[in-house]
Specification:
Shape: globular
Order of helices and strands: HHEEHEEEEEEEEEHEHEEEHE
Pfam family, one: Carb_anhydrase
Structural class: alpha+beta
Strand content: 25-35%
CATH class of the largest domain: Alpha Beta
Largest sheet: 12 strands, mixed
Transmembrane segments: 14-31
CATH architecture of the largest domain: Roll
Helix content: 10-25%
Distance between the termini: 92 Å
Protein name: Alpha-carbonic anhydrase domain-containing protein
Number of strands: 16
Domain Alpha-carbonic anhydrase: 49-311
Radius of gyration: 23 Å
CATH superfamily of the largest domain: Alpha carbonic anhydrase
Number of domains: 2
Keywords: Membrane, Transmembrane, Transmembrane helix
């Protein structure tokens, strides 16, 4: 073998070098992607300045970065029953559509790097919707479900009910006349068409069986931007339906850009969740590879807003 032929790699060596090169390029791309995610968050076609829930990018700093966060109708708030304006619910009962009882053909969970989000698709154009009550004749169609939690079982919910915080808060997003399921939550907020339906969870020793499909899916969401399919189930199993005994007020998104004009319906009667189930949320990975220990915003000033209680 002459000098030149000895310098030419055989097929195995060439394959090895190609694989190494691809891995290096891929690693550089992923590193660049995550470094950008540390600087920006994307919502649909929009990019926002980075935010998070740590000391260097948490809620206490959002007013310096997002103009809307300085507003006087921010969420969440402390919902005080004695201070709320009582409204007889029998005059305008809250109405949940029949689609809450229908099983979607697809259901999946997604780790956004800051949150666990549930999406679902139903056959045809019909999706679960809400109307009546303070919404009157307006119809709001389902978008997605988001969960909020904290570092321990004594905090995690964003809203407080009569000065009490709970371990978890589940926020179900709806869009007014939203026939396009691809519209995101930020689009709905910017257009003033967003409704948030909120449930709080209290820790008990026993697992909540209706939450278990969600909890099982979380095992596949250890990394940001990961996704997991669920065995579909009717939304009513996750979101108990009610027509009275709830709070209503106008507030904002609880995360940047903290857009105001969001309608909130909060069910004050806590649902149940076990400590084991709450801990599964805390094992989700953030974009900085650390676990998401908290993703809730502290309560904001009510600033004289009218808070209604439909009894």
């Amino acid at each position: 073998m002459d000098f030149f032929s000895s310098c030419v790699p055989d097929q195995v060596s060439l394959y090895y070098y190609v694989v190494v090169a691809v891995c290096v390029i891929g690693a550089l791309y992923i590193n660049d992607m995550f470094s950008k995610m540390g600087s920006y968050r994307s919502y649909g076609n929009k990019q926002l300045i980075s935010y998070g829930y740590d000391n260097h990018n948490g809620p206490s700093l959002w007013k310096n970065l997002f103009e809307a966060a300085k507003g006087h109708k921010q969420s969440p708030i402390n919902l005080l029953t004695p201070c709320a304006i009582a409204v007889p619910s029998e005059l305008h009962p809250l109405k949940f559509s029949e689609q809450f009882h229908h099983t979607p053909y697809e259901m999946k969970m997604y780790n956004s790097g800051l949150n666990a989000v549930l999406y679902a698709k139903w056959s045809g154009l019909m999706r679960p919707s809400i109307s009546g009550g303070p919404l009157e004749q307006e119809v709001y169609n389902f978008l997605n479900v988001r969960f909020r939690w904290g570092p321990d079982n004594h905090e995690g919910s964003e809203h407080m009910v009569d000065t009490k915080r709970y371990a978890v808060e589940m926020q179900v997003a709806f869009m007014r006349n939203g026939d396009n399921p691809k519209c995101d939550l930020l689009d709905a907020a910017l257009s003033g068409d967003l409704l948030m339906l909120s449930y709080v969870f209290m820790v008990t020793p026993i697992d909540n069986p209706y939450l278990e499909p969600i909890i099982q899916a979380l095992k596949s969401l250890k990394f940001p931007m990961s996704c997991a399919l669920l065995c579909p189930f009717p939304l009513r199993l996750l979101t108990p339906l009610f027509s009275k005994n709830y709070f209503y007020y106008e507030g904002s998104l609880t995360f940047p850009p903290c857009t105001e004009g969001v309608k909130w319906i909060v069910q004050p009667e806590p649902l149940l969740i076990s400590s084991r189930q709450v801990n599964k949320f805390r094992k989700l990975g953030a974009c900085n590879c650390a676990p998401i220990m908290s993703n809730s915003r502290p309560v904001q000033m009510a600033n004289g807003r009218e808070i209604f209680y439909y009894d």
